[in-house]
Amino acid sequence: MGHRLLSYLLAAVFMLSGASAFAAPTIKIGALFSVTGPAAFLGEPERNTAVMVVDQINKAGGIKGKKIELIVYDTNGDATKAKQLVNKLIKNDKVSAIIGPSTTGESMAIINDVEKAGVPLISCAAGIKITEPVKKWVFKTAQNDSLAVARIYEYLQKNRLNKVAILTVSDGFGQSGREQLKAQAKKYGISVVSDDTYGPKDTDMSPQLTKIRGSKAQALICWGTNPGPAVVAKNARQLGLKMPVFMSHGVSSKKFIQLAGDAAEGLKLPSGKVIVADLLPASDPQKKSLMAFVNDYKKHYRAEGDHFGGHAWDAVMLLKGAIERGGDTPAAIRDQLEKTRQFHGIGGTFTFTSQDHAGLGKDAFVLVEVKNKDWVIVK
Q1: DSSP helix/strand/coil, 29
Q2: What DSSP element (H or E) covers 9?
Q3: Which listed CATH number (3.40.50.2300, 3.40.50.300, 3.30.930.10, 3.30.420.40) goes with 27-144+287-361?
Q4: What is the pTM of this model?
Q5: Using an 8 Å Cβ cutoff, are 361 and 348 in contact?
Q6: What does DSSP say about strands 343-344 and 349-350: parallel, antiparallel, or unpaired?
Q7: pLDDT, tens digit, for every residue of 45-96?
Q8: pLDDT per residue over 310-346, tens digit each?
Q9: Is the model's pLDDT at 355 over the cut of 80?
């Protein structure tokens, strides 16, 4: 009986050791996205894209023979929840790197946590403060709002429009945009003649727009993310506002055109190139990545791949490059991210340095206009 028990135990041990030998170690990557809640139009395409790209990498054999294990948590766009979940990723899941969160407020809320833990973070949000001043462990893929403002102001300067009204949402994204709009105006010979805000949940901006209509403004710049800017577009049309209206890159997806309906027609905004990928010349260094992403996304999700999904594509691919070059420890990933040069991604061509963890230049943006419920490039 004893012999039989022993042989059973030995067989069990062999089976266990065999099983563990087959379960090769994975590279754990955490992801924090606002899949539900008011910022779901950011987080859902980000989550979808991250899952899609990780699947593709794993099907092709992983990175140096190791599969990526993607651990995604939904933050609901809530900074407090993001803080709880980032600690879960660091302490319980023991991830090597984290991508996300979707919004500037959430990203700012977790910076101390990743810095203290020494885990690289690639944020998918746009606020300039995420990476300026530089934090050792924090990078980002969304184009800086400073570049978006510059793109609008260049157009206004060229068209001799030098008096603007700004209407910004009172959240992290809106505040960051407002600071940039005010800070860069002088450089382009532009004066801000009206400076107003609206709340993220406001459903009527007519009072602010009536005030703007009575000002000397020659153009209106609205800075926010869905659904507020669509309300602004509709209210502006109802009030018969004649001046050109500009939006931020925060509404750079078909979702905005659906929300604003006919009121979207003629609006201009700075955008990453992804929404006009098919209109780009073949010589554009990003075209290959852009078309691959757009086509893959359509195939997987029967929807248009957008600007926001692009932030997650870039984050996963930047991590892949860093891990291929230096291995999958958090410190090695951080060091190799900082050495990334000329990576032609979705948001632009990235070159990180020890002084620059945002990595993009003004060429990351094109100015687009809504024509017949679609985007065209403004020449």
Answers
A1: strand
A2: helix 2-22
A3: 3.40.50.2300
A4: 0.85
A5: yes
A6: antiparallel
A7: 999 999 999 999 999 999 999 999 999 999 999 999 999 999 999 999 999 9
A8: 999 999 999 999 999 999 999 999 999 999 999 999 9
A9: yes
Candidates 119, 159, 161; CA nearest to 139 is 119
CATH number of 146-278+365-377: 3.40.50.2300
Closest CA to 269 of 205, 334, 224, 212: 224
User: Mean pLDDT, to the nearest integer, of 347-369?
Assistant: 96
- Is the peptide bond between 25 and the residue preceding it cis, with omega within 30 degrees of 0? no
Fill in the DSSP letter of residue 78.
-
Q: Which helix (H) or strand (E) holds 20?
A: helix 2-22
Amino acid at 365: F
**Distance (Å, rounded) from C-alpha 123 to C-alpha 137?**
11
- Which tokens belong to 195? 């400076």
State both tokens at 355. 């002084």
